[in-house]
Amino acid sequence: MRSPTTILPSVLRTCVAGSLFIALAGCSGPDKQLPLLDKIAALTDENADLAKQIETGETEKARLRKQIEVLSGLPADVKGEKLYRIEQVKITKLTNLYDKDKDGEKEKLIVYLQPIDQDGDILKAPGAVDVELWNLEGEAEKAKLGDWRVEPEELRKLWFTAMIMMSTNYRLSFDVRGKIKDADEPLTVKVAFTDLLTGKVFKEQYIIKPQPE
User: Fold this and answer.
1) Which residues, 6 or more positions from 30, have their beta carbon under 8 angstroms from its beta carbon?
2) Model pTM greater than 0.70?
C-alpha cells in the first residue's frame, strides 16, 4: 500500500490536469471561436484586396511596357531627344463647377488639362489621368470630395478645342452631384498625369474659387 504522502501528489496532478482540460475546452468553445473566425475572414478579404491591387498594378506595367516596345521599334531618327516629350501639365482657367441642366445646382466638375512639351507647346500626349477634388477648408476627415481615373483609351477621345480661349485641351467631365455641400468655399482640384511613353507622373493642382453672384 502506498503511503498518504505518495498518494497526495498523484491526486494533485490529476486535479490540475483536469482543471487545465476544462479551461482549454472552455476557451475553444463555439462562442470563443467566433472572434477568431471574424479575424480570419477579415484577413482573407484584406488579402483579396491586396491581390487585386497587385493585379491592377501589373496590368498598368504591362501597358507601359507595350508602349515602350512600340517606341523602341521606331526608326532611329525619331528616338530619344528627337521625340516630343511632356515637361509639365497645366490645368487651365476654364476648370470649374458647372450647372449643365440649369436647375440651380452645379453638378458637373469639368477639368481642362494641357500636357506641355519641352518647347512650351500643347501636346496631345497619350496617358492616364487621376483626378481628385478636395475641400481643404472643411473637416480633415471629409476633405476629399471625390476621385476619378481616366484610362488612356477614354482620354484620347476627350481632346477638345475651347473656342472661348482658342486653345486645345483634354476636357474631363465628372459628376459631383451630392458631393458638394457648400459651393461658397474654394475647392482644390488635384491631377496626376501618367505619360505612357515614359511612365513619368506629372502632378498639378488648381483652386476653384467661388464665383460672385
Assistant:
1) none
2) no
| Structure confidence by residue, pLDDT tens digits, 87-120 | 999 999 999 999 988 888 889 999 999 999 999 9
**CA pair distance 24, 58, nearest whole angstrom:** 46
What whole-number distance in Å separates Cα of residue 130 and Cα of residue 19? Answer: 61
CA angle at residue 59 from 176 to 202, to 5 degrees? Answer: 55
How far apart CA 210 and CA 24 sit, in angstroms, is: 65
- Integer Cα distance of 53 and 49 in angstroms: 6
Longest dimension (CA), the chain: 112
Report the alpha-carbon distance of residue 139 to residue 193 in Å, rounded: 27
Task: Assign 131 to helix, strand or coil.
Answer: strand
Give the Cβ contact number of residue 196 at 10 Å. Answer: 20
